[in-house]
Structures are given as structure tokens and as C-alpha cells.
Design goal:
The structure is a single chain. By secondary structure, the protein is of the alpha/beta class. It is globular and about 60 Å long. Strand 2, helix 2 and strand 3 form a beta-alpha-beta unit. 42% of the residues lie in helices and 18% in strands.
Length: 303
Amino acid sequence: MSSSVTAKPVFTVFTPTFDRAHTLPRVYESLRQQTLQDFEWVVVDDGSTDGTAALVERWVEEAEFPIRYFRQANSGKHVADNLAAREARGVFYATLDADDYYLPQSLETFSRVWETIDAGDRSGYVGVVGLCAALDGAVIGTPFPRDPLDTTYTELADTYKVTGDKAGIAQTEVIRRFPFAVVPGEKLVIEGAVYAQIAQEYRIRCVNEVLKVVDYQQSGLSASARRDFQRNPRTASAYFLQRLQMPGPTSRSARVRAQAQHTRYALHAGRTLGSLKETPSTLLWLLTVPVALGLWLRDRLRP
């Protein structure tokens, strides 16, 4: 189902959803209130059973902006994201989870900040990043050390020690080049794996403006991160291997942690020797095996 599309919009706002019919109306209302209305809303339903389809179908008929609805068998947010990126018609791509919502000026602010980047430099930028707040208005994590800050996704954490969820947009053509890896039988979403790849080629412009409100659900991805890593060990192990293989300077402590985590989740996947064959450093693997075994045993014993 879809409403009519007359021209290429500035933004594609992508919302992945699974049994969130009770929070989706808040997302919809926040989009209706946007001061910049040049966008489409792409909803990917990951196998909901709570009437989500009927809800979105009603909005398709009444909304003043295009809504495109896709349904897939329950496969995980990363599969939904890859689908939405392929289908996106907007110049920029923004993810707005079904639990969250934008402030009225959010899309306009993203557009305004992008325009502050010199036109000749924009090909080297993937997009714009702002802050998130909780329902009570408190900023989530730490703000950026200056405004604006031109950096990369990995430098935000590794160099500037910025923490917490952030709100962002990215050029759609760039996002399509870096899809999420899909491991059969696993549904873990590790956004940092994609961000790390993008950071090798593109910068971001960061501003200390709250642009998204985040409402963490008890059953959401954030609530079960540790268990999800254990349930999707091949994806987790591959992520930490990527961290080990990344070019550029990496601290010794960061390499030790990544190696131990790589082996830890390889153990969960029954791939102990596989982790040895993959590692860039046999010596580092040997040195961190005791730590990895300890973490693995703790995982097995912890309820």
C-alpha cells in the first residue's frame, strides 16, 4: 500500500516496527507536526501481529505526506533497514524508531545544518548528527565538546568519548553502499559495525541541539543487549573481528578488549579454532584466551 509520490523528497524517514501499534501513533503525530514537510515515511513491519497494518493503512489515506508500507517475515531490524535503504527515495535517510519521535523542527534543523557545510566539501560528509533526550527532557549521554563538531562516527567515541544515543541523517546513496550484514538465523543489530565502515570515508557534522526524543521500551533492543549478543554469537564475533581489523591507530587496551570479545562470542558459536584462524595476531589471541574463557563461563552461568 502507498500514497502517491510526486517528486523526490528531501528525506526518507524510516521506521522499523514490530508489535508497536501502541507507540506508532506518536511517531506519526510527530511527523505531521514537522515544520519541513518535504519527506516520505517508509514503515517496515517486521512481522507484527497487533494490527499495525490496518493502522498504517488508515494513515496512508489521510496523511499529507507519502507513506510507504512494507511487511516482512520477522527477520530483525537490520533486514528491515536494508530493505528501507533500497526503497528510499529521499536524498537523505533518517531512522526514527517506533518507540521514539521527532521534535517539530527536527527535519528542518537537519536540513539547515547540512547547508552550513561548504558546498565543495559535502561529498566528504555522510550527514548530520544531533542530540537525543529522554521523555523528561534530559539529554541522553554526553553532548559534543563543541558546536559544530566535524568528526567521524568512530572518533566520537574513541577520541571525544561521547556517549549515548544520538539523532542523525545520512545521504541515502552512502547508506546504500554500507548495508547491514545478514547472518542466517541471527537477528542482532550492531549499528556500530556499519558506522565504523562509513567512518573510513566520511565525516559528520555534529550539533548540540536535541532533535529526537527516545522512549526506551522494556522489551526493546537496548533492554536486552547482553542477551542478544549471546543469542547471536556469529554476528557479535564478526563485529569484534572488524574492530580488530580496522585500519588506523587503535589503543592497545582497545585491541585487547576486542580480541577477548571476539574469542568470547566465537566460543558461544562453537568456533574456537575459527577465531584463532581469523585473528590478525596469534600472540594476542593466546594472551586473551583466559579472559575470553572467563567471560564465556560467566555468560553460561548467569541467568
